[in-house]
Amino acid sequence: MGAVLVTGGAGYVGSHTVRELLSRGERVLVLDNLSEGHRQAVPGVELTVADLTDPHQARNSLDSIFQSEQIDVVLHFAGRAYVGESVRDPGRYYRHNLSGGVELLEAVARNRVPAVVFSSTCAIYGEPETIPIPETHPQRPVSPYGRTKRAFEEALCDFESAHGIRHINLRYFNAAGAHPDGDLGEDHRPETHLIPLACEAAMEQRPALAIFGDDYPTPDGTCVRDFVHVMDLATAHIRAVAALRSGAASSSYNLGIGRGYSVLEVVESVKRVSGVDFLTERAPRRAGDPPRLVAASAKAQRELDWSPSFTSLDAIVETAWKFKQRHPQGYGAA
């Protein structure tokens, strides 16, 4: 068994996956430019600070890692993940999510690394035609973020045809929660995810929580999302690594709990968990927000032997609240 390279391993889902790999005795190396990740999230791990969008830096750093370590799987998390930002600045997304990813794939091919696990997204599907959404759903992404993720999935297919690199795409729905220990969690600058924003409102770090649209065709008028716990996402990556090492063919998998919670249900959950009745305010709809996104994850359960352990919204929120209480300013203060 070789070592594992985790790009973007100091970020949110990446750092939780690194923790899980280490707990299983894996040799883990992390490459991250620290634009979104945090050194504090990967203590004691060999960290190479490098930017995949800088071709010279990427080639030197990746070749050095691959030539000094027997890497047999790369977990690729590095990239940008803000839908609104991608609409305002598409060039940044094509550089980070596609050009930087191709630099990685060329290094993987050059150094004959056999397998890649890709951190993908349900955003590649666009407006859903059916709920829950299966992996066979048409791919019509509505944002540069979704389009760059879809393009990288296509690049993986082309690199497999040319170089034999097998891959697994893990298409997350709404990543949420934090490590149950409370020492590892979500710290984005700026924060855009609903649960940590609601926690900030409960801690009076913001005057109110904005609710973007209350006139959707859903039971309470707010968007419905499938929240999958970050530890369950980490476990899915462990399963994907094991599958590729055992010779599994390339494939794609949705990761979600299979049921949706509305924005207002999340608000009520955070109020229950925190014990704080914080304020909310109505705001206009955001472009590109589908009314409902819920995963069909039977394929991952069947082929990867994966199933979510956090299926209660309150249980997910409790872990996020615990991290936020211990790190009110994120990793900048404990």
Approximate helicity band: 25-40%
What is the count of helical runs? 10
Strand order of the largest sheet: 3-2-1-4-5-6-11
Query: What's the number of structural domains?
Result: 2
Q: Write down the Rg.
A: 19 Å
Tell me, what is the CATH class of the largest domain? Alpha Beta
Beta-strand content bin: 15-25%
Residue-averaged pLDDT:
96
Provide the low-confidence segments as ranges.
none
The SSE string, one letter per element, is EHEEHEHHEHEEHEEEHEEHEEHHE
Query: Which of globular, elongated, flat, extended, rod-shaped describes the shape?
Result: globular
Q: Provide the CATH topology of the largest domain.
A: Rossmann fold
The structure class reads alpha/beta
How far from one another are the termini? 36 Å
The CATH homologous superfamily of the largest domain is named NAD(P)-binding Rossmann-like Domain
- Largest sheet at a glance? 7 strands, parallel
Count of individual beta strands: 15
CATH architecture of the largest domain: 3-Layer(aba) Sandwich
